[in-house]
Amino acid sequence: MPAWRSISLWMDQLGEDLTPRPSLEHDLDVDVVIIGAGYTGLWTAYYLKRHAPGLSIAIVEAQTAGFGASGRNGGWLMGNLLGEDRLLAGLSVEQRRQSFDLLHGIPDEVKNVIDREGIDCDYRKGGGLYCAARYPEQEASLRRYLASLYSEGLNESDYRWLSPAELAEQIRVAKPYGGIFTPHIATLHPAKLVRGLARAVERMGVQIYEQSPVTEWHAGFARTAVAQVRSRWVVPAVEGYANTLAPLGRYQLPVQSLIVATEPLSQVTWNEIGLSQGQAFSESSRQVTYGQRTADNRLVFGARGGYQFGGRLRENFDLSSDEIELRRYLFSELFPQLKNVEISHAWGGNLGMSRRFQPHMLCDHQQGIALAGGYGGEGVGASHLGGRTLADLILQRDTLEVRQPWVLTAGGLGALKAWEPEPCRWLGYNAIIRSFVYEDKTLANPHSPPWRRQFASRMAGFMEGFMH
Questions:
Q1: How confident is the model at residue 467 (pLDDT cuts 50, 70, 90)?
Q2: Per-residue model confidence (pLDDT) at position 1
Q3: Where in the sequence is the domain holding 238, given as residue range(s)?
Q4: pTM of the predicted model, to two decimals?
Q5: End-to-end CA, the chain
Q6: Do 182 and 197 fall within a single domain?
Q7: What InterPro entries does UniProt report for this protein, alphabetically (predicted)?
Q8: Is residue 170 part of a domain?
């Protein structure tokens, strides 16, 4: 059996047998075949069965449920989408409010499901904290972000400014300049959720085949090395592994995010840090950091990883000492008392990034193809919305979910924007990331002269603009 427990802290903590389900050994005829037993595939199957119990559905998984990002992520269940400001820009005030309400409702709808299905995944809706906590420029950046949210029709019930004193009531960092609090985020144990979902859909009658990598797919079928599934609908739910299923790799690239977890910390230490309600937190830099206090009192902390030439998957997530120490440096900037803490787990995963840097949910009724992806590292919540939406699209249900600007119902795969060829992608990605690193090092140094600080921020902002 593969060493699936070593994938992440989350998989290591599962108190269950990880013996794989049987592989696909014979041809099948079903109504829906789903490629991938991660969040997107499982949520799609769940809502299809909720609304149309008579459908025959098979899920074909290359490894085991939770092998991909669903078993490796940082455990943020967010009520928003990457790039939502651009996606919602053309809507009326009323439509925008409806869309925001739909997004903000994601954590509560997930809670409804886990309660209904008896999935214990350490769900805690403590909200999210975006902290200006390392250098003063972060405060100005966050205040601009808050102003942009308010300009979109949101208000203090959605996002509100915290003074340093108010921030300290929830999280105590070394250099508090303030922050933003939103109630629309929960934290959870991602591997318990994905494994629980797999069991839930099996109880509903969905067939799951593991260790059965799909080698080819087209409208009407998916094929493994030993069998094929014929189906009215094909749902490739592979997110960060899109390059394993041509031609999806043209539209969605794998990038990596890397995470560390400390040993369980004492109550004394947590009294110094805070985070007593299961809050998610991030410090506001372009390094894209994220963290949470786990149910067993560890600090889980991640930051942006990398991109491999040609959009290759990263297979080996044994983090190097430099990768681990960068994350230690970043979290110890916030919590100096953790500078020498023992790190018990270090891992990473591949996530999917679309060329428009925003998610998509696509349905082609003529071809019988439906897919969702491009979550850009925010997939725990976005995949739930994706699964709900794909189920409604397939069943032609007229719901608020299917009337959103991220839903594409014309043009098939051609509605997605393709990535540029190499070496443009690799050169562009590395130029952008180096500008972010330079900015962070410059601003984190209190002795950097004002002209250098301004130059670093302007250059990083200019480079970030290329991402959109």
A1: low
A2: 57
A3: 4-73+190-250+356-415
A4: 0.96
A5: 42
A6: no
A7: FAD-dep_OxRdtase, FAD/NAD-bd_sf
A8: yes
